[in-house]
Design a protein that fits this description.
Elements (H helix, E strand, L loop, with lengths): L15 H17 L10 H14 L4 E4 L6 H8 L3 H6 L1 E6 L2 H13 L7 E5 L20 E6 L21 H4 L11 H10 L1 E12 L8 H11 L3 E6 L12 E7 L8 E5 L5 E3 L2 E3 L2 H13 L7 E4 L1 H6 L21 H6 L2 E2 H4 L3 H6 L1 H5 L2 E5 L2 E4 L3 H9 L2 H26 L9 H16 L7 H23 L4 H6 L1 E8 L6 E9 L4 H8 L1 H27 L19 H14 L2 H16 L4 H9 L5 H6 L1
Parallel strand pairs: 1-2, 1-4, 2-3, 4-5, 6-8
Antiparallel strand pairs: 5-7, 6-7, 8-11, 9-10, 12-14, 13-14, 15-16
């Protein structure tokens, strides 16, 4: 019943059943609240991990030791090339039997063959799995390991009669066991044990793993000393259904160069709020991934920390030690307040205006004493001078030209899609987003990620659906089709859906009207203006009628409009009585009714059948 109304023919190029199932899992997680943490990782967190994994190395096998619904595995697969997707083997383990079944169903509905999935119903920590069948006692190595384990699991080492010991191969190299009441590092070391030498691991953990002491401090030190830790990514708080605490994504690799630094990213301030949760936008995810791939150092956002720097901090990896938080507090200058003037150091912070047109900017200030200046023009005038300067105007024109060319080329790509020339829509989306970002990042003071977000929004709201339809036919054929416009009407128990006209399948009605029927729309608009003018005048006359004198007789029963026949009748009666004031009023009504759109036929009939002697009236 849930899928009964889906048009499988129109959407046959997409993984519609799998996506619908994933959507329902997400909705169930939303309703489940805190329990959702047992099986569901928010999409945007999965995207950060998956995109980093996909950009690092060739992935033929992927493992999630706390697999939940399988969304992490599938998200990584989605970002791999078509050839890699065909060969990708999925491994996972889940302790909860119901969730284990959920995982397998999710993978199947997303087209993963049973031959390419190995999912086990068991406890990850109590017994190491999977073992290499050719090497008993050794774990299988994977190209990628991803996981979102239970946070600070207090029962990680209490599932067997005999607790795990430091001699367990997963912990032996680190010389200590994680604390019994906090299993965060236990899951990390399990995943690291199964990570191949050329692989990449991404794991979501609470911030405590960055600074807590005792055995966790020893493990953290060993991770840094062994050069396994590649990046730390701090995410916003309140992103998960089961906890409001902020979390970090740790990226680990075994093939790092000896002097490679650790990239630390503070992405905790980049999000939007949807309902009760904070959500990463496409632009926020893109910025994280770009910063990681390029190992960029951005003030108040990221820092490249050397081994010596981390060692000097006692292996404490708490993000605020390395990335300075944004300070929005306005610093007050006492000398400036008392003696007047603007501190030069404050002027230097106006980087956008200064970089846009340095000459105009510098000419706008006069020094009044050492370290202080004053504006020699109004601030709004300064802004206009900079924005209208030759340098800025030329940059804006260049950007407009590049964007126009981008949209022309993009439309050419999109319009050429058809069933005869199939295309990977995910790859197309990625190319469109990267192209607009590449254009914008060449221009100072332009946020390329804002443009990225605009295109990502256009894709999700319009292009993706339209292109799915076009890909099974062609632009021309789909563009011609119309479909019922269904709207909800009624209230409460009588609320129902019914058709209200027709709309274009991919071409909006407004676009059709504006481009094909512009003249007619203008004529209709003129008529509506004329109609409203006449209606206003008639309303004024109606309001001036006197009920005592019987003038209301010319109105309809509800007194809302004039009755043309009654007006004609009263006009003739009044003319016969030579009641000049009433004649003038009724003639006024007749005149306006004559010109009122939609009433012309009634007025013509009235005048043609009138027996009034106009010559006689004029003489009198």
């Amino acid at each position: 019943m849930l899928f009964a109304d889906l048009n499988m023919v129109d959407l046959q190029s997409t993984d519609i059943l799998g996506d619908a199932y994933e959507y329902l899992i997400g909705q169930f997680a939303s309703d489940a609240g805190k329990k959702a943490g047992e099986f569901y990782t928010p999409r945007q967190v999965s995207e950060v991990m998956a995109q980093i994994i996909a950009k690092n190395n060739e992935v033929r096998s992927i493992y999630d030791p706390t697999v939940g619904s399988g969304s992490l595995l599938l998200t990584v697969g989605k970002h791999l090339g078509k050839d890699s997707q065909k060969l990708l083997k999925y491994y996972g383990q889940e302790y909860n039997t119901e969730t284990y079944n959920l995982t397998r169903m999710n993978l199947l509905l997303h087209g993963v063959s049973p031959d390419y999935m190995t999912i086990k119903n068991g406890n990850t920590m109590s017994q190491d799995w999977p073992e290499d069948p050719n090497r008993p006692g050794e774990g299988v190595q994977f190209d990628a390991v991803v996981m979102n384990p239970p946070y600070s699991d207090k029962k990680w080492n209490s599932h067997e009669d005999v607790p795990l010991k430091v001699s367990d191969p997963r912990f032996a190299d680190f010389g200590t066991l994680p604390p019994d009441n906090k299993g965060d590092f236990a899951y990390l070391l399990h995943g690291l044990f199964h990570l191949g030498q050329q692989g990449t691991m991404a794991i979501v953990l609470p911030h405590g793993v960055l600074f807590r002491g005792d055995s966790e401090a020893l493990i953290r030190q060993k991770l840094v000393d062994k050069n396994y830790l590649d990046a730390i990514i701090g995410l916003p708080s309140n992103m998960f259904k089961n906890t409001g605490i902020p979390v970090v994504v740790l990226i680990l690799k075994k093939n790092r160069n000896l002097n490679d630094p650790v990239l630390i990213i503070d992405a905790s301030n980049d999000f939007i709020k949807i309902g009760k949760n904070n959500v990463l936008r496409d632009q926020d995810i893109a910025k994280i991934v770009d910063t990681y791939v390029q190992k960029k150092e951005i003030p108040n956002y990221s820092h490249v920390a050397s081994y010596d720097e981390i060692k000097e901090n006692g292996y404490n990896l708490n993000i605020p030690r390395y990335v300075e938080a944004i300070d929005n507090e306005l610093i007050q200058d006492v000398d400036g307040h008392l003696l007047g003037g603007i501190p030069k150091k404050a002027i230097q912070q106006l980087s956008v205006l200064k970089k846009a047109d340095p000459e105009s900017f510098n000419d706008s200030f006069d020094e009044i004493r050492p370290g202080y200046v004053r504006l020699n023009q109004d601030i709004n005038e300064l802004k206009l001078n900079v924005l209208n300067s030759t340098i800025v105007v030329r940059k804006i024109d260049n950007l407009k030209d590049e964007l126009e060319n981008y949209f022309k080329q993009s439309f050419s790509k999109l319009s050429s899609i058809s069933s005869n020339s199939p295309i990977d829509l995910n790859e197309l989306k990625e190319s469109l987003l990267q192209e607009v970002k590449s254009i914008l990042e060449k221009y100072e003071n332009v946020n390329e990620y804002d443009g990225y977000q605009i295109m990502a929004t256009l894709w999700s709201q319009y292009l993706e659906r339209d292109l799915e339809l076009i890909s099974v036919s062609n632009l021309y054929e789909v563009g011609k089709t119309r479909q019922p416009h269904m709207v909800m009407k009624g209230q409460g128990s009588k609320r129902h859906e019914e058709q209200d006209g027709w709309i274009g399948t991919i071409v909006p009605n407004e676009l059709i009207k504006n481009n094909l029927f512009g003249d007619q729309l203008n004529s209709i608009s003129d008529l509506e203006i004329k109609f409203n003018d006449y209606q206003n005048r008639l309303d004024e006359i109606r309001d001036s009628l006197s009920e005592d004198d019987g003038e209301f007789d010319v109105l309809n029963d509800d007194n809302s409009e004039f009755n043309s026949k009654e007006v004609s009748k009263e006009l003739k009666d009044s003319l016969s009585k030579i009641d000049i004031p009433e004649v003038n009023r009724l003639q006024d009504v007749a005149k306006f009714l004559e010109g009122k759109p939609g009433k012309q036929a009634q007025i013509d009939y009235m005048l043609e059948h009138s027996e009034i002697n106009w010559d006689k009236i004029e003489k009198k």
